[in-house]
């Protein structure tokens, strides 16, 4: 088999693992709906879902030490299996519902483990001249997985109940684990220098990264607010189902990535990021004033614009400001701040949610607006742009 075909088959296996894995883990965005129907308060649901971000943060130091030293196929298989098996805990009836935060902690950690490991695996499969296009297509498959997962899971949940939803989500994660295991990966080269804590201290001396890390935090707060409280708002306003948001959101991301990604490197960060950052509070305010399905679709489009641009551009700005031997760990640092935003939003929002869901979304929108002066005052063009 030629090297070209080997690379193609490797990419296909990874892409299918991404598609199935995202379909599985995005299905669990319906957990707040399940908790609400069980009678849990929005604050309790927000507390549980906040451990999505905390899990990602806690697993990152461990991931930084071993991600480059083991085959990615085994890391991926373990991550998907742990995620799927953790879902069985949701069938338990704990004395305190907040104990459901424990399986959510592991699930949040496994999201980070699998996404970082997939990124590392793809970087070795794609030749340099195909990486930009390959990463774009790879991200699109993830968004398609999100659309499939949430739409199918909500239909199963509403039609057949919670067990059917769990079977589908865990089954998708099992398919991702199998696809990862049969991925034709070469044994990694263990001869390179191992990561050291000192590398992080050296990277943090570069003050130009801090505005972009803050913007990553804000991106996470928007995602965390939607993750933790959107299902409750949909039920409160009797809009119907959450599916329109989770179709409009990834569809917008896909469109942005396919149509406009070639513009990302042609303008300064200030010009590229201003409108997408403005879309975060806009999406939250649309949910705060939610009355119809069209409002839900509009919120999905607004947040899709934000995520579609901010996620790749912020990562690129940070990586361009890091040493070559620290770039993978800079991506981890970005994920740490993004997960920190999820944790912050779900807990602070949860404190407000038991008083008013509208206040939750309005307050998080106000926090989101703080990104604009940071962008204008604190950022400069990347040295590699």
UniProtKB/TrEMBL annotation:
Residues 1-187 form the Major facilitator superfamily (MFS) profile domain. It comes from the Bacteria. Keywords: Membrane, Transmembrane, Transmembrane helix. The chain crosses the membrane at residues 47-67, 74-93, 105-123, 135-156, 162-183, 212-230, 242-260, 272-290, 296-319, 331-352, 358-378. SUPFAM superfamilies: MFS general substrate transporter. InterPro entries: MFS, MFS_dom, MFS_Exporter, MFS_trans_sf. The lineage of its organism: Bacteria, Pseudomonadati, Spirochaetota, Spirochaetia, Spirochaetales. This is Major facilitator family transporter. Gene3D superfamilies: MFS general substrate transporter like domains. One of its GO terms (molecular function) is transmembrane transporter activity. The keyword Membrane applies.
């Amino acid at each position: 088999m030629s090297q070209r075909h080997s690379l193609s088959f490797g990419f296909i296996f990874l892409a299918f693992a991404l598609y199935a894995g995202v379909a599985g883990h995005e299905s669990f965005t319906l957990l707040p709906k399940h908790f609400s129907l069980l009678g849990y308060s929005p604050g309790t649901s927000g507390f549980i879902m906040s451990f999505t971000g905390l899990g990602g943060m806690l697993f990152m130091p461990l991931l930084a030490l071993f991600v480059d030293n083991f085959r990615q196929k085994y890391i991926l298989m373990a991550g998907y299996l742990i995620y799927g098996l953790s879902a069985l805990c949701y069938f338990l009836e704990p004395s305190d519902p907040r104990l459901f935060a424990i399986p959510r902690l592991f699930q949040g950690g496994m999201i980070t483990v699998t996404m970082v490991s997939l990124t590392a695996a793809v970087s070795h499969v794609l030749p340099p001249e195909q990486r930009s296009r390959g990463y774009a297509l790879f991200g699109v498959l993830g968004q398609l997985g999100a659309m499939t997962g949430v739409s199918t899971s909500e239909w199963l949940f509403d039609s057949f109940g919670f067990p059917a939803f769990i079977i589908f989500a865990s089954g998708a994660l099992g398919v991702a684990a199998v696809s990862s295991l049969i991925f034709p990966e070469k044994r990694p080269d263990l001869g390179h220098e191992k990561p050291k804590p000192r590398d992080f201290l050296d990277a943090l001396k570069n003050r130009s990264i801090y505005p972009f890390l803050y913007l990553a935090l804000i991106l996470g707060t928007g995602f965390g607010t939607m993750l933790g409280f959107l299902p409750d708002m949909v039920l409160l306003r009797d809009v119907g189902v959450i599916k329109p948001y989770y179709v409009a959101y990834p569809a917008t991301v896909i469109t942005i990535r396919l149509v406009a990604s070639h513009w990302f490197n042609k303008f300064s960060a200030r010009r590229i990021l201003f409108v997408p950052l403005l879309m975060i509070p806009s999406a939250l305010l649309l949910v705060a004033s939610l009355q119809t399905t069209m409002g839900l679709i509009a919120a999905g489009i607004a947040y899709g614009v934000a995520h579609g641009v901010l996620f790749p551009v912020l990562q690129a700005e940070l990586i361009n400001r890091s040493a070559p031997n620290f770039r993978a760990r800079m991506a981890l640092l970005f994920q740490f701040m993004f997960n920190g935003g999820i944790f912050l939003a779900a807990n602070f929002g949860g404190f407000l949610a038991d008083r008013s869901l509208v206040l939750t979304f309005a307050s998080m929108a106000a926090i989101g607006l703080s990104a604009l002066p940071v962008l204008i005052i604190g950022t400069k063009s990347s040295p590699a742009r």
